[in-house]
Amino acid sequence: MTPDIGLILGIDGIATGSIYVLVGLGLVLIFSVTRVVFVPFGDIVAFSALTLASMQLNRMPGTVYLVATLAAVACLVETGHHLHRGKPRHIARGLLVYGVLPLLPAAVAWLTAGASLPEWLQIPLAIALVVPIGPLIERIALRPLADASVLLLLVVSVALTFGLSGLGLLFFGPEGFRTKPLTTGIFRFGTAIVTAQTVLMVATAAIFSRCCLSSSRRHCLGRRFAPHPSTASAPASSVSGRRAPQRLLFCWPHCSAPCPAF
């Protein structure tokens, strides 16, 4: 192997590693707050990229159907839960949170399907489509198991990733997509070429890693989002309750937002 090939492979490895760093940070944030090893996080990040690619091809994103399906199931689970507890007056709020709000970005994507949207609008819309998947999955699969052990929650997370992979094949199809880069600039280092997109990826991973490191050093990551200071070291059963959707919702924009365009 020549030095030039080694340099090219090294640059490619750093670029790929930066993406895994962002995914790893997302997993760490979710586990630090909820004590759930959310294995399907990688699938949700992939959905964000597939959603953006579909928009760039002027197609209807499969995320619209995925979110609609999850919202329908979540509404059924929420309704059954309140009826079982004898609190039907809470059903309307549950339908609003898990039925209406997740479908708002899906409705926008459905109405604009086939239209050539500007890139500055495609990326926020793709993120808005993917964000509700986390709270919906939490309501359907994780909250009913709030008192289960961490091991059982891990097993459920693994099962969820297989289920989401199947739904992804159903709604997006088996063909591959490629998103357009945010920038087309290039830098030359001898015979090696580094794109500005790669620099942006590495810089994003470094910035988020630094932010996560600063938060962990101050020991405020768990206390900032937990209702009680002891929750930061508590098992998943004490954290997967009412505030879990907001916590999962916090994680998606920070961890999956940089990824669609990569």
Biggest pleated sheet: 2 strands, antiparallel
Instruction: Categorize the overall geometry.
Output: globular
**Helical segment count:** 11
Distance between the termini: 28 Å
Helical percentage: 55-70%
Overall pLDDT confidence: 81
* Main sheet strand line-up: 1-2
Q: How many domains is the backbone divided into?
A: 1
Radius of gyration: 20 Å
User: What series of H and E elements makes up the topology?
Assistant: HHHHHHHHEEHHH
Secondary structure: number of strands: 2
Give start-end ranges of low-pLDDT stretches: 224-242, 244-262
Subunit organisation of the chains: single chain
Strand content: under 5%
Sheet/helix structural class: mainly alpha
List the helices and strands and how they pair.
Elements lengths: L2 H32 L6 H16 L5 H23 L6 H10 L2 H9 L7 H12 L2 H10 L7 H23 L13 E4 L2 E4 H22 L3 H5 L18 H13 L6
Antiparallel strand pairs: 1-2
Helix pairs in contact: 1-9, 1-11, 2-6, 2-8, 3-4, 3-5, 3-7, 3-8, 7-11
How would you characterize the overall build of this protein?
There is one protein chain. This protein is mainly α. The chain has one domain. Helix content is 67%, strand content 3%. It is built from 11 helices and 2 strands; from the N terminus they run ααααααααββααα. Strands 1-2 form a two-stranded antiparallel ribbon. Helix 2 packs parallel to helix 8, helix 3 runs antiparallel to helix 4 and helix 3 packs across helix 8. It is globular, with a radius of gyration of 20 Å. It starts with a helix and ends in a 6-residue tail after the last helix. The C terminus is likely disordered.
